[in-house]
Design a protein that fits this description.
- The chain contains three helices and no strands.
- By secondary structure, it is mostly helical.
- The protein has one domain.
- The protein is flat and about 45 Å long.
């Protein structure tokens, strides 16, 4: 059950990470709709980083880039828990 949860969580997190801003992967723009899909998949971690910035950054919501390093681990954990809960059913 763990493998069935780890593999999709890792793949989805990787796709979200590759398509996020600042990751210059060659020919990423050639895939139609990939940047939109990657942005949607990366959204939980980015929202978590923005919430951390709102609470802990002296710049408020504008300090989100200081906490963006938490986005991939939060995405992976969130997707892992989602797939693990689905696999228990």
């Amino acid at each position: 059950m763990l493998v069935l949860s780890v593999v999709p969580a890792t793949v989805i997190t990787f796709v979200g990470w590759v398509g996020s801003s600042g990751r210059y992967v060659a020919y990423i723009g050639a895939l139609p709709g990939f940047d939109i899909l990657a942005g949607i998949l990366a959204m939980p971690g980015i929202l978590f980083a923005v919430l951390l910035a709102a609470v802990f950054s002296p710049q408020g919501f504008h300090g989100a880039e200081q906490f963006i390093m938490f986005a991939p681990p939060v995405n992976w954990l969130g997707y892992f828990l989602l797939f693990f809960a689905i696999s228990l059913r």
